[in-house]
Amino acid sequence: MSSPDKKTNPDEMVERSSISESRTKYQRHHHSHIDDEPIKNKMSAAGPQDPFMGEEGTQVQYRSMKWWHCAILMIAQSISLGVLSLPSSMAILGFVPGCILIIGLGVLTTYTGYILGQFKLRYPHIHNMSDAAEILFGAWGREIVTVAQIIFFIFLMGAHILTFSIMMNTLTDHAACTILFCLVGAVLSFILTLSRRLQEVSYLGILSSLSIFIAVLITVIAIGIQAPDPTAHAIRHPPLLSATSAALNIITAYGGHLAFFSFQSELAEPKDFTKALVTLQVTNTTIYLITAVVIYRYAGAAVKSPALLSTSDTVSKVAFGIAIGTIVISGVIIAHVGAKTIYVRLFRGTGRMNERSLVSYGTWVVIVLISWTIAWIVANAIPVFNDLLTLLAAAFGSWFSFGLEGLFWMHLNWGELSSARSARKVALAGLNVFLIILCCLMCGIGLWAAGQGISLSAKNAHSAFSCADNR
């Protein structure tokens, strides 16, 4: 709510008008009625509202990000150490299939990200995937997706804790128990997740992005200098299990869509999301392609995952030491979005989110603490962690990045499909049906591949809560 002594910004009037119009369309679609009063910072009896609407003049204002803040967050979340698993995927598939997958998935995920942005503009109350799922499937769909996304966030956080412990074991030559290194990573991540606003977290994203860019550059140069005479192939013919796992690695590298609604919700101008999306996709596709091609070319079929381990011990330590920024901060961004999902669910429409009170901030701290504690337990308790993460990526990531987007497009355009005559509309309908089918295939084959991987890895895995070196 604006204070009476401030002039009304014309841009804000346009934005509020657009939000109000979109909200009206949504509620007409559900046979609801709303009054003509301004949206206050309380839950309207008529239906859902933008959780950050009407926060002008409050103590904590969330919708403060510019598009470049959002782009930095998206880059920091998406381009983390996963980029260094792509050379090993290309070593399994070969140059041609690897390049086709990296470029093709880059284009495809740009389109699915654009669908998410348009869906959010049509329904401004959406803050996360569970809000969007409620529009498609009702209350039961909301609860299922809420549980799925929280589980996915927790396991991704656990993966970052585990990677932190691998980094520490590399830097110190396993000078301490791995459980202790995991604890240090969890505590550091918890401290950095204490801010409630994404704009503040975006400044950490700058450090994360610089960290992974420099680590990748060091690795590429070092492998180019140190690598033996390698053998690289244009096309390889791997077994189905290996090929599926390699393809899932590339798909997972583009799997940041789960957080896109939350990022767009805290943009001062939600329509600027497209700028941030294009910046992300051009950046990550370029870096993924260059990294995978160059490292595979010089390291050959023996390239390790992450590729940092393919260099000498000294260079690996230097690169891992620089990569600490992305190892920690990328996990912090994931944790923030996951915690915000619960926080908004608890306080949406009450005004608590915009207070600097013991209850509001204390609740945030408790949510973050519990999330990182569970993630730490998961990182230590599951011996075949990477395979389990592949399992979750197949079960949930395929839907969050491809399947649901196809359904969102169908929902937005359903009324026009029966009378569609233009070739463009027919082609888009076919593309989105393809996305849904692709999702189902990825989910089914990915679950099979992950199950086979878990069965094979369990025989050689460390026990739960082991102090052993996990490099």
Automatic annotation (TrEMBL):
Chief location of this protein within or outside the cell: membrane
Regions crossing the membrane: 67-86, 92-116, 144-167, 173-194, 201-225, 245-264, 276-298, 318-337, 358-379, 391-414, 426-450
Subcellular location field: Membrane
Entry-linked Gene3D superfamilies: Amino acid/polyamine transporter I
Sequence segments annotated as region (Disordered): 1-41
UniProt entry tagged with the keyword Transmembrane helix: yes
Designated name of the protein: Transmembrane amino acid transporter protein-domain-containing protein
Organism encoding this protein: Aspergillus pseudodeflectus
Family: Belongs to the amino acid/polyamine transporter 2 family.
Membrane-related topology note: Multi-pass membrane protein
